[in-house]
Amino acid sequence: MSNPLLELQDVSVSVEDKVILDGVNLTIRPGELHVLMGPNGTGKSTLVSAVMGDPRYEVRRGRILLEGRDITEEQADARARAGAFLSFQAPEEIPGVTLENFLRTARGAVDGKSPKVLLFRKELREQMAALDMNASYADRYLNVGFSGGEKKKAEILQMLMLHPKLAMLDETDSGLDVDAVRTVTQGIRAFRSKQNALLIITHNAKILDGLDIDAVHILEGGRIARTGGAELVSEITAGGFGELKKEAGVHEPL
Amino acid sequence: MNSAINRLPVPTWSWTGVNQAEDSAVLPELAVRKAPPLPYAGELPEGVELLSALPEAVASIPSGMGEAVDRFVLDHADTVCYLRAQGGKTVAPLTLTRTLSSKQSVAVTHWGISAGAGSALTVVQVLRGGADHGAAADLTQIDAEPGAVVRIIQIQLLETDSRSWSAVGARVAEGARVEVVRAVLGGSVAACGTQIQLEGRAAEYSLDTAYFGDGEQSLDFNDLVIHTGKDTHSELRTAGVLGDRSRKILRGTIDFRQGAVRAVGHENETVLLLSPTARNRTAPLILCGEELVEGQHAATVGRFEEGQLYYLCSRGLSPAQAKHLMIEARFAPVLDQIPDEALRAEILENIGRRLGQP
Amino acid sequence: MSRFDQEKTRVEAVDRSVYDIKDRVDPSFEVDSGLTSAIVEKISAEKHDPEWMRIFRLKALRTYNEMALPAWGPPLDELDMEHIVTYVRPKTAMQGKWADVPEDIKNTFERLGIPEAERKSLAGVGAQYDSEVVYHNVRAEVAAQGVVYTDMESALTGPYAELVRKHFMRLVPPTDHKFAALHGAVWSGGSFVYVPAGVSVEIPLQSYFRLNAPGAGQFEHTLIIVEEGAYLHFIEGCSAPKYSVANLHAGCVELYVGKNARMRYSTIENWSKNMYNLNTKRALVEEGGTVEWVSGSFGSHTSYLYPMSVLKGARSRMEFTGITFAGAGQNLDTGVKVLHAAPNTTSHITTKSISRDGGISTFRSAVTVAPEAEGSKSSVSCESLMLDSRSRSDTVPVMDIRCDQVDVGHEAKIGRISEEAIFYLMSRGLAEEDARALIVGGFAEPIAKELPLEYAVEMNNLIHLEMKGSIG
Fold first, then answer.
1. What is the ipTM of this complex?
2. pLDDT by residue for chain C (472 residues), tens digit each?
3. Which of A61, A23, A29 lies closest to A43 in space, CA to CA?
4. Which of A235, C69, C289, C390 could cysteine-pair with C285, CB 3.0–4.6 Å?
């Protein structure tokens, strides 16, 4: 088995002194696709935000390793350069910075050298076309005035252009219509390789259509309550988390 | 004659210091000019002709800086550029660069633009160079006849040993549009003032200002738009960055006069403060004597937005790179409207140099 | 508070009559030109001032005579500054006759459902009314908690004399502006409140209770000290117009808000429409303290009113909620000033203004963030409603930011009642006038909900009154 790409070792995370994650362990290896599910408010976004290094989240205990290197104390940009990527649920709007200019700067940052302008532009146009994005979006300001769906596609576009090792997708499918979800799934498939890995947060099996899933984790009560294979996805989409709770002997409060 | 420069249209508490420009913006004392000013001698775009004298309709238009500056330019102009644009679409911009040097420490330019019905004209006014106690002053008077489109692009790249005054006044007739685009980067003192009268039905005005102050720079703006016509529309956008001990006053006034029914005026400002010793003053006025109008103003002043910085950093940009990008972003709406690629690059280079390019 | 129950029905039943207001100056007064030290000495003697106050008044008089009128704001031409003594004569406010009270005020009393006896008292004609009794009861009740609530004259010589001396016009010095100087020279009446540390005063104290107290006039001084961790809500005025023969009001309010203390100061100002209201209000807030201003300006011919908060202590806060309604003949220049002088201070300003029937309303503000106020936040939101095109509404805010670690936001909006909204309401059966009143009431709702219920009801009634006959 190859060396882990991402390792969470007994990670506890708090936001404004409220503990959200309490002792999470997770290992993702190159080439794998993991799915993270769980009821609202159980800390799925907290988990990926903590991995990305969102300053609002405090890792109180445990370690986060990327390719064996402890990144727990690193800033977001260092993590990105080390290969981490997060597709945000609500991406920031940044007026005055065009999508293309931003991507070129970011690509220069993660690669350590500025991309060749023409080659880069060609690649960008191709990826945008693949995602069914109008080419004019390259000249628009980052996420400004983008619809919900356009924002999510722009996130996937960034993933494709920045070649991260670990891509975390936080409900990238929410608010998208069927066609757009299919496009995103195509983007994920195009991205996937033996060297990289994905961690996908979703409530919906649609985005996973036709993707080989290596593991599904259910987050519950601040820790991973259960891990299984692809079959867990259909189990949950059919029966919801209540069924699982019963199984686990946990009862929902009335 | 009132000697105050950039007077707030409605005065307020004097201790706020915003009622007029600071003393540092006082005009220089110059000897009476004996030689007549030289007319513009550069290329003229198609459909534009040079006038030898300015029609009264243009000459009578007041600027936003006040009588003192208007008078100063008329008395001391060394260069005049009186233009008449006629019908049709003019594509090529007319560019005039004034450069201060030890040989010419003062440059005073008087622009008069008579834009005929349906004409279009873009004028690029560039100030650069510097001189000990250098001074550059200009007055641009614009008469936009029905359907005309006049765009004034002012780029101020002076050294910090010099000061500048840029006064603009415009009268905008039915269906006509005036656009003013300003990039203010240099000068120890940069004072600008616009007064736009939207007189005709559906007359339009847009103002885009971007500035970057650092060191001991002082910036002073007085931008006034007067809506008298029905269905008139104005957009005033100002974005800037202040570092070191720089300071800035922006007076932005939308004045809806009685009868300006269905007029719409929007004013927006963002200020990024990079230093604890920078000082930003803003006085955004909305004056209203008509019921059926829509007026809005919004301003945000402060530091970088943490969420935006994190988002950019999560894609691999260092905090310094992210900040640099967000400073450049303030200039984007202005850069987008500058037709000359070399000028755009020069502005970005200027910003990069002052930020200490990473 | 039974009269509040009657209002609604009464209000709707009344017609709006034509106002006929004329300045009435009782001819029996002699008029000296200008304000002299002899007059000020006389006021001081009549009030049995302590010596320091006599000197204070005379010094303020010199300041007054040296200062110019403000170079901004609504015109003051009709204010007879040459004969300012006309406005200053002691006791003028209390010597009117019911017959002299203008019709519009009598009518408003009637429409608001205020009983006969109380009307006379509110009009300042000196009729005895049981509010004096209410005032004494309240006083006794809060005294049990150690709270001092008394009139300024008594406070000057009572057990709190030293405290008063230490604080009187320290926050608003007579040098602040010409009318502050005038106030310093001729002030009389007003309230003194002292809330000891840790005491939370549950009932709002209302200056209204004291309207009949001796010396309640147009130069009253309010001095309130809320000590560490204490809480007080003070309500000034009431919504029935206060009529005064002398039509200059230059009061002064000074609030000292201690560490972690909270003070709410609510005002519904409805002076008669011949009044020049040049009032100065200021609060000094210590560490972790909060001052909340709730301000409604409905009356007066001309107003200059900008309550100021000095956020002196770290983490101190201020909230300002205000509404101004300018109708025919009114020029109301109102707003707010705040100085962020310490780290992590916060200010929230929400104002609404309505202009109608030729009225002029101006929102004027100054938000200053000092270099030492890192981490401070300020937000200003002002909305103006124009009800016709004979009126004016101006917004004149200033921000002065001298600190980079801050978040400052400002929003201003001006507009009219949406015709679609009126049509919608009318399609549901409302008369146009009622539809408009309803929408204007909704516009004022954020202010109303900050007021104690009975005042909110009165404010709503006032809006309805002002809106009567607003069509055409």
1. 0.93
2. 333 333 333 333 223 222 222 233 333 333 345 688 888 998 899 889 999 999 999 999 999 999 999 989 999 888 877 766 656 654 434 444 666 666 666 666 666 555 555 555 555 444 334 445 556 667 778 888 999 988 888 899 989 999 999 999 999 999 999 999 999 999 988 889 999 999 999 888 877 544 433 334 578 899 999 999 999 999 886 555 666 666 788 899 999 999 999 999 998 888 888 888 999 999 999 999 999 999 999 888 999 999 999 999 999 999 999 999 999 999 999 999 999 999 999 999 999 999 999 999 999 999 999 999 999 999 999 999 999 999 999 999 999 999 999 999 999 999 888 777 777 777 777 777 777 877 887 888 878 778 777 677 777 777 777 776 544 3
3. A23
4. C289
- In angstroms, the Cα distances linking B151 to A34, B80, C38 are 56, 18, 66
- What is residue B278's DSSP assignment? -
Residue with tokens 């670990």: A166
d(CA C184, CA C176): 11
Residues B200, C412, B280: CA angle, nearest 5 degrees: 100
Interface touch C72/B288, C-beta < 8 Å: no
Nearest to B325 among A85, A92, A97 (CB): A97
C384/B293 touch (CB, cutoff 8 Å), yes or no: no
Of C387, C395, C401, the CB nearest to B280: C401
Q: How far is B326 from chain A (nearest CA, A)?
A: 7
C81 touches chain B (CB under 8 A): no
Q: What is the pLDDT of residues A105-122, one digit of tens each?
A: 889 888 988 888 889 999
Q: Which residue of B has its CA nearest to C358?
A: B289
If residue C118 lies in a helix (H) or strand (E), which one and from where to where? helix C116-122
DSSP string, C446-461: HHHTTS-HHHHHHHHH
What is the number of alpha carbons within 13 Å of residue C230 lying toward its C-beta?
Answer: 21
pLDDT tens digits for range C138-162: 777 888 899 998 888 889 998 999 9
Q: How far apart are CA A61 and CA C67, in angstroms?
A: 66
Q: Is the dihedral of CA C459, C465, C471, C472 positive or negative?
A: negative
Between CA A166 and CA A162 the distance in angstroms is 11
Q: Which amino acid is at B263?
A: A
CB-CB neighbors (< 8 A) of B273 in chain C: 401, 403-404, 406
Going by beta carbons, is chain C in contact with chain A, meaning 3 or more pairs sit under 8 Å apart?
A: no
Q: Among C98, C97, C194, which residue's Cα sits nearest to residue C150?
A: C194
Say whether C51 sits in a helix, a strand or coil.
helix
In 3D space, the residue among B24, B168, B44 whose CA is nearest the CA of residue B94 turns out to be B44
Nearest CA in chain B to A75: B313
Which residue do the tokens 């003949």 mark? C329
Residue C219 to residue C47: CA distance in whole angstroms: 13
Contacts of B310 (CB under 8 A, 6+ apart): A54, A55, A76, A92
